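Hi, here's the filled form for the chain we discussed.

Project: internal
Contact: R.S.
Residues: 267
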Amino acid sequence: MSALRHIDVAPPHVVQAISLARHGVAVFPCLENKCPATPHGFKDAVSSPDEAATLWQRYPGPLIGVATGAVSGIDVLDLDLHKEGADEWHSAHCTYLPRTRTHATRSGGLHMLFRHREGMRNSASRIAEGIDVRGDGGYIIWWPAAGLDIVDRSPAAQWPAWLAEQAMPPPPSKMDPAATEQTLRDADRYAAGAVRAAIQSVLTAPQGRRNDTLNGEVYSLARFVPQGLLTAGQIAQAMAAAGLQAGLNQREIEKTIASALRARIGT
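And the returned structure, exactly as it came back:
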């Protein structure tokens, strides 16, 4: 029996979730703390009204999670306005922002919705401290269903070019295997093999785990430095190229590599 048969007795937030699914938005239940109520988080999001009704029957949750990116056709600029950096950025740029669907958030910030732009992924504080982007592989809470204000009911706008440039990572540079081999030309054969395996591990890490993988691989490789089998510079150069190829930004890569080397060998 279709779960939609019970729509007349469903809580208001479930009714709204079903309505969003009917309009092609991928939804899933979340708990009061914003964590997913489903086993696989945003990967369980559905854009079928009947599937949405069934999902809430199986995993009741008081909040509506919306998977962002291509799956729903929307990206979100998440502004935590209680953070100084976000408030300053918004004050300086608000007159240049287009009219677009905007929701108030529980923390006193804003969710600005934009039509999905190909290649737009999640990022944290890339634009400014306290300003995050939710694109492919991310999700938001649909706060209007929890009673918060819709600040602007305009349709979702396209990303303005200047903002998209700030929000998106630079195109990853192509890794040159010859350059990597040149970097490792004087390295011990076993250690050089470990570097190549570490590079492959970073390149194949799933989205959301790439920076952690980079950190772990650099930390592991640093064991060769005290033995004289690799230098910190060889590790940093090879792994930075891998991080760029995997889509991480330069600043994030530099911080991660420096932190991992410092933790292992104090450099």
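Let me know if anything looks off before we file it.
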